[in-house]
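Structure tokens
________________
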Amino acid sequence: MNGSKLILAGLLAATMVAAATARAEEPAAEPVEPVEPVEPVAACLNDRDLRRLVENRTVVAPIAAIRTARAEVAGDAVGARLCRDGKEYVYRVTVLTKDGRIVRVGVDGRTGRPAERR
């Protein structure tokens, strides 16, 4: 090896040692505490299962749930999902109010009436 390659190898080794030392001196990150969910997670159904339940008359059609939600909260329904909550089916209808708030309304999937809050 000639002199310039030897100097370069030495500089590279010194840089790697300095970087490793700096990392070792960094304080350890504090552990992150898990966040509790705001509401229990329910298993929501896909479109095929929803269609089957509506055809079997197990649940009301999504449009009925949307109408109920709009009667409860003035605004535009922007989404509706059918979820299982224990043994019950509940539509979770998302409504955008006139003042720009997002409100989620629960509708009983079997009756189409507002769901009781727990």
Summary: The CA atoms of residues 41 and 85 lie 9 Å apart.
